[in-house]
Amino acid sequence: MTQNNDAILSAIPSPCFVLEEELLARNLAIFDRVQKSAPIRVMLALKGFSLFHCFPQLRTTLKGASASSLWEARLAAEEFGPEVHVYSPAYRAEDVPGILPLASHMTFNSIGQWEQFRSQVLGSTPHKPSAGLRINPQYSPVKTPIYNPCQPSTRLGVSSTQMGLRLPAGIDGFLSHNLCESDSFALEKTLANIEELFDRFLPDLKWLNLGGGHLMTRSDYDVDHAIEVLNAFHSRHPHIQLLMEPGSAIAWETGFLMGTVLDLIPTDELTNVMLDVSFTAHMPDCLEMPYKPAIRGARAPEGDDTIYRMGGSSCLAGDFLGDYAFDKELAIGDRLIFEDMMHYTMVKTSMFNGVVHPSIGRLDKDGNFKLWREFSYEDYRSRLG
Ligand SMILES: Cc1ncc(COP(=O)(O)O)c(C=O)c1O
Asked: Could you tell me which CATH class the domain 6-12+256-347 is placed in?
């Protein structure tokens, strides 16, 4: 639904995250074309989009899912498959036995973690995942430090010098994730850096996972150029299976968060709009990144426009975003549509990356600990749909 349709919108409860099926199909068609024109397998990164109700639609095109934790790996195996690519910046020892039977590929962030779990991975029966290492290609076009995995002293990935001279025994592939909402020229530069810095390992690699950050579904992305770049890499290294695991690009502009105006509080400079949604609770990425989401029908204020500041329903003083103007004055009860809220926003308001939620307990004066609540995979899954 690309236009306002009041009757349709008023039938939806508020607040609500709403996926638009047709828009998701449009994005999938782009990845379908890429996979048909270049030797690459595309996976969904669950960390960016985990709305499992639409996985049957995604499975028509995508080859599997990538997971960053045991809980995401379970979701990938239960609801997606057949390929389950697992990479975690740091595995918890107690999660590894649960991940091994689920993972088709298991990637480690450091040589230390690989050495810690190598015998478990290589000795895993009856099923053994293909093992990989995350590398640091020492190039990222991302200027915002919170999204730049290649910043100096990064904790993400093994550098060429840390890798030594030979591929560690048992390692089949590399994962490079260094992009974020990036274009095909950044992909080209990434591959050039990998070839320059990691050339000594390439003859022995079985696969190379190019991570996420390929925003192929943004209207200005040069898909043909990306296809050329991938084909050119393949012609130089035909034995390497290319993979990628976008999150954002799959769910890019495929849905919205709808909220309702509960109150309007005018001040001398602007009008505070009190909403039934919250930036800190439901759209934390807006404050974290930070970015100002588009609101359907809103524009930047000019001249004598009433300036509206969107206020969340939490008590956090900074739970607001502005400034917006509308052609018609807002009223209590109006519905507002925050655009493009499907990727990251939804998973950030649940259990991001499927990271285990901290337990809750009490320590009494005698040093006795009482566990009140532990969280499970079912808690994670039930937050997503
Ligand atoms: C290892 C890895 N793969 C894939 C992704 C997905 O990236 P994007 O949603 O930007 O496509 C991320 C995002 O942080 C990541 O860290």
From this structure: mainly beta
